[in-house]
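Quick check before the chapter quiz. The format below is the same one you will see on the exam, so make sure you can read both the input and the output lines.
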Amino acid sequence: MNTRQDPHGGADRYLLEVVDARKTFPGVVALDNVQLRIRPGTVHALMGENGAGKSTLMKIIAGIYIPDRGEVRLHGKPLSLNGPLDALEAGIAMIHQELNLMPFMTIAENIWIRREPINVLGLVDHRRMNRMTEELFERLGIDMDPETEVRHLSVAGRQMIEIAKAVSYESDVLIMDEPTSALTDREVEHLFRIIADLKAQGKGIIYITHKMDEVFEIADDISVFRDGQFIHAAPASDLTSDEIIKLMVGREVTQMFPKEEVPIRDVVLSVRNLALEGIFEDISFDVRAGEILGIAGLVGSGRTNVAETLFGVTPATGGSIAIDGQETVISSPHQAMLRGLALLTEDRKETGLFLGLSVIENMEMAVLRDGYTRSAFVEQGRLEQECSAMKELLRVKTPSLDERIGNLSGGNQQKVLIGRWLMTNPRILILDEPTRGIDVGAKAEIHKLISKLAGQGVAVIMISSELPEVIGMSDRIMVMHEGRTTGFLDRGDADQVNIMELASSPVTPPAESA
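Here is the expected output.
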């Protein structure tokens, strides 16, 4: 499968090399005969569908996994990596896709953990540690208080702390796994400036992303993986997005947003003047059976808070919610589920998954009590049959339903969560960033599924930071800015310019479109 092994010349040009790597887990070959070569002072993008082996390869380079076969070389010399600390000491740092910060510790404590400066009494010198953090932030252009506890930060804020932590190791190789998944456009520009500075210092950046526009903006080289195998490597200037997609999925993805025209029926959910004190206010909209209502807005606009309030995670402090014309109070997720609502949360690791449990245990979580019990006993056979069918429908790549979900790729974890909520047969489905961290092939599959659900009469609310996704999938779009609705756009009138204009500044919202 190695169509082009060495696009740049001799081995002396490489900062980092992976040669003939193989890694297996029970029932699955994650990597087979894989190679990677990183030049100093470059960004090397790794492209591939979820389950292609990218994260497994990165964990080998970062010392988290030990390969069954193969070798990692730094500056031409073989490395023996028996753990993440070995990799850090060798000069390799990784920013994980799933954030690994400690929420009840401060920013400074998270950045310098295990490297804390010690005073003459043998205690942690917090003043010096905060000063070190301020100096690091000044260098990176980050405006945060080192003494803030991480639990008070947004997902985007935590992502920037992970980036700062990785840079603080002064490593020769930095691995960035979906670093912009929770960042605003302005924060992405900030990150790219940091990357440019690192490149100028001769660092090698391994960059994993599913955002094609980012690849062509910052990548110097590209390697493509599929089904655990190396497929192709080339300078970024030699490839097009269509060529990369075809190499990734083994086929052409001709329709990323398969929005079907379906009958839009009666109003299912009616929200009037909804408020959560100090967070958002005066939110009003209707969603009809068969309709996909997109919600757009910048980070901090209140989109996720509205979703959580509708689902009873944070009950409203004002306004009303009506389902099928009947006003109702939703003060808990259980009440929301009884009324036919389902919520796919924004952060799968923190608010969605039970990483220590199996695929089937995660998938059955929402229906175990209400849908699959008889005389206080679980109908395990029927439940396994339904979970297996959902696994096949969503094309979840896993050796078995009993596999620990923490061993799956991020995209496959996301599919399991979607399956969990589809098993509740919701009438109102709220999707918060449904394709974050999902590869292009899986995105098209999930978009097709969303369209199919709308065709079956499900009322869908879809929150997304990716404007092409919002525009491509929505019948109408509600735009928010700083906790208020700033406008509604019909599908035919929406483009990225007018959405961003509404998302960027407060305006008097027009009447909602019918």
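If your answer matched, good. The chain has a mean pLDDT of 85.
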